[in-house]
Design goal:
alpha+beta; 2 domains; three-stranded antiparallel sheet; 5 strands; elongated
Length: 187
């Protein structure tokens, strides 16, 4: 019992001393700094060159060959996203047996701002090769207010899979406006 008390006391003293040291040096714990940084990014307009470097520090550049390539491409994508109209027209492809099966009240969270991105490569990334013969790819167009874009998740996705050109939405796309749907040409 004395050993447990000794260990607990020693551990508590160490943790108290560690907190004092962090405060003394003016350093916040990593998790707190990360949370504050993430809260500082509400829209793509909040991202500048310095924030891009911090984003790389927190999330890495897994989908790129090197950091210079990542910086240039990521910055270009952020600038494109800053210039999206509000609401932005976004596209999504889903697999359904017919157009009537599309649930307009639950449109999903993974979108792209580029209709040119709706191709065979994109279909492979969503598992098209595993669909049965009756399931066909349908394009959904929607208008999305900027406040419905999950900026942080979009950033993470861009760094991991830069060629997907994906924008992630909050609430699985519940607060967006359905425009139309149509069968993807050529499939």
């Amino acid at each position: 019992m004395k050993i447990r008390k000794f260990i607990a006391t020693t551990l508590r003293e160490y943790l108290n001393e560690h907190d004092k040291y962090s405060s003394y040096k003016g350093m916040k714990p990593y998790q707190q700094r990360k949370e504050e940084f993430l809260k500082s990014i509400i829209s793509f307009n909040d991202i500048d060159d310095d924030k891009i470097k911090e984003i790389f520090d927190y999330f890495g550049t897994e989908g790129y060959n090197d950091e210079e390539e990542a910086f240039d491409d990521f910055k270009d994508n952020i600038n494109d996203y800053k210039n999206l109209s509000n609401p932005a027209k976004l596209y999504r492809v889903i697999g359904v047996k017919n157009k009537q099966a599309i649930r307009k009240d639950d449109l999903g969270e993974h979108w792209t701002p580029y209709d040119w991105n709706l191709d065979g490569d994109m279909l492979m990334s969503i598992g098209y090769e595993n669909w049965d013969d009756e399931t066909k790819p349908y394009v959904i167009e929607a208008l999305v207010p900027h406040n419905e874009i999950d900026v942080i998740q979009t950033i993470i996705q861009m760094l991991s899979f830069p060629n997907e050109h994906e924008i992630n939405l909050k609430n699985k796309g519940k607060n967006i406006k359905f425009v139309k749907s149509y069968k993807l040409k050529g499939f």
